[in-house]
Amino acid sequence: MQQTPFYPIGTPGQRWGDAERAAWRARQVRQRSHADDVVTRIDALRDRFDVETYDTLDYSGREGGGRYPLLAIRSRDWNHDLPIGVITGGVHGYETSGIEGALDFVETVARNYAGRINLLVVPCVSPWGYEHVQRWNIDAIDPNRAFRAGSPAKESAALVALLTPLRGTVLVHVDLHETTDTDESEFRPALAARDGVAFEPGGIPDGFYLVDDSERPQPAFQQAVIAAVEQVTHIAPADADGEMIGSPVVAHGVIEYPLEQLGLCAGITGAQYVTTTEVYPDSPRTTPTECNAAQVASIVAALDYALAHR
């Protein structure tokens, strides 16, 4: 199969260098404001939760760059005798419902867990990606393949530094994502071009699904989350090969990845219960509001199951 003909950067069969990355970066357009959309909502929570700036991304002086505070929301009166729940969103900044779902959860539901579990919520891991509606960071690195010590992705390195001290003490970690039509039309072709390999078209699952950890699967936990989300939006079926995005469907709405091995966000904490959500916002069967509600439902179901099965 030939390199996809429509991706405009790079030479088929050759990995990108600095010039190609610069050309890609020059094509990115700021489309929304992290300060207005995300920081403002987090600031409004300061009377109820502890908010910390765990790092600052400084991309100022670079084309399309700027300075971005990386913000985490913590339960007030953190109690070391309680279990810990971690919620992360916006690892891929273009995946809007992960960010909005995390914020909706904190604004409307999180108070119900006071005195039961310590919550640490990072609504937007990748603010540059959020503003530019991009999967990658400013250096054309996918943060969700780079969560490891010494990561070249500053967003990933910062979150690893925040969460590593909690490793082994986290009960449940929910990482909120989307799978969109642009995954197939833009981001996968860009990935193939960047890496100098042939683009192989795939498919986009129509509906919500979860990614479990193949190294430490928790099938009953995953099904509890699926059952809750199914009351809000539809669950993606397997394709004709019994797969979704090239991975075998191991249960209703569930596939598996080796999370830590692949450098995925959900693998940072070593939580007993861990899942990655995937919403399909481009489906004609759903709406943005429904997608946000599905993310909130997944968090609530995950926390409730984990607390009941400690």
TrEMBL record:
InterPro entries: DUF2817 (IPR021259), Peptidase_M14 (IPR000834). It holds the Pfam family DUF2817. It comes from the Bacteria. Residues 30-310 form the Peptidase M14 domain. SUPFAM superfamilies: Zn-dependent exopeptidases. Belongs to the peptidase M14 family. This is M14 family metallocarboxypeptidase. It comes from Luteimonas flava.
